[in-house]
Amino acid sequence: MKKLFIKTFGCQMNDYDASRMVDLLRSSHGYHRVEDPEQADLVVFNTCHIREKAEEKLFSELGRLHKMVRTARIAQGRSAEPAAIFAVGGCVAQATGQEIFRRAPFVQLVFGPQTYHRLPTLLTRLEQGGGPICDVAIAPESKFDLLPLQEKTGAAASVTVQEGCNKFCAFCVVPFTRGQEWSRPVDAILAEVAGLVQQGAVEIQLLGQNVNAYQGMDKSGLPHDLPLLIRRVALLPGVERIRFVTSHPADMTDDLVELFADLPQLCPYLHLPIQSGSNRILARMGRGHTVEAYLEWIRRLRQASPEIAIASDFIVGFPGETEADFQETLQLVEQVSFDHAYSFCFSSRPGTQAEQMGEHLPAEVSSARLAILQERLNAHQWLNNQKRVGRTEAVLVEGSAKKGSGELSGRTPEFRRVNFPGEQHWIGHIVPVQITEGLPNSLRGQIARTAAVVP
Ligand code: SAM
Ligand code: SF4
Ligand code: F3S
């Protein structure tokens, strides 16, 4: 059986794509996924273009792995020729295309996020000696119609419902790498979810770059926005939890807020990136909303669902960001007390409006601001974790805890990670766990034996 090693970078949509490539290549060419690249006949890098560092890392990692795989093949007594096939997909591939062959001449195949469904044909062409191949043309056909049924990877599964982005925030490459905003038809989504539930998934995460801008149709021609789509997913038997990610503040609606109060399956967790606490910077970023509008959505969300966990993203050091702008970001952090956040130094990306703006900040200024911001974000996350101590949380057990010790690991509805001692047969079930400790990045607990729901 042929062996496939995939390394994926970037967002959850890239993770989703990587798992779909595995499904696809299993059914077309009999590949199965391995964790050890030294065993691989095909090595795929599924790349991310969002920040410059990731791109630099890609080429050094590609070179390192190529050497390692070649040496291992010779040591295993397999001939170095034909060598393992190296392929690069994802957003860097989409943005740079043929340039990848120049920087890594051993790469034989380059494909994009909208062409990976053509992998079987491309591989066959390669096997027949037709390489190297670069296929990054945005496909006229829907890739989703051409993918095999998704194989479940755990109790929590993801389904892409919306792709691409039309917002063109001044700093961001996504509209260039993923293309125009496009929503999958409702019935295709429901069929994929039903297939996952049949294989044992109990939590479904709906994915999109701007998932709350979802606008799809069902087969009767009825338009669905995200709240209606979520209601339809919740009607499928076996769906116990629903999440969706990532939402844009400018696409928030009252219907979506109400859903947190109304729909028991919808987890009280919302990832709502704000990027900056300064209206001046938000306008320069082209985000299309103010700090006040953002705070108003947070107020309504907490009114609808008092326990809701709020996560966000921040960029510091955007061109023209003054110390006063940065102080406004810190103020916002104190005001909202986020449960979780990702934060980054601004990275100038090719083709974006921000690249052309003046007033780029020295790297030391951005890094110093990032350190201060992260200290505050971490402090709030820890504080909010500590507030859970003494409560009993419904934890979906996803698997064994990473650091050995025979413990289990799962998530609360608010997406907090919980590690606790337990039995392997609880994996895949929702069990009650009493929280005993709130750590900076996770919770610790013990099973609440009084409850009768432990399988
Ligand atoms: N669509 C989402 C939104 O509008 O919030 C975010 C998508 S992007 C894949 C994820 C995060 O990467 C962004 O929220 C932003 O914080 C960060 N990001 C995007 N472009 C960046 C850049 N040029 N420099 C630094 N961080 C960036
Ligand atoms: Fe990028 Fe902005 Fe689109 Fe998010 S909304 S993907 S940050 S352009
Ligand atoms: Fe990166 Fe592409 Fe996702 S640029 S963040 S992998 S959409």
Bound molecules: S-adenosylmethionine, iron/sulfur cluster, FE3-S4 cluster
The CATH first-level class of the largest domain comes to: Alpha Beta
| Strand elements, count | 21
Tell me, briefly, the overall form. Answer: globular
**CATH homology group of the largest domain:** Methylthiotransferase, N-terminal domain
Q: Can you name the CATH architecture of the largest domain?
A: 3-Layer(aba) Sandwich
Question: What structural category characterises the helix and strand content?
Answer: alpha/beta
The end-to-end distance, rounded to whole angstroms, is 37 Å
Mean pLDDT over the full residue set: 93
Helix content: 25-40%
CATH structural fold name of the largest domain: Rossmann fold
Gyration radius (Cα, Å) is 23 Å
**Strand coverage percent:** 15-25%
Any idea how many domains? 4
The largest sheet is: 6 strands, parallel
Order of strands across the main sheet: 2-1-3-4-5-6
The count of helical stretches stands at 14
Low-confidence stretches: none
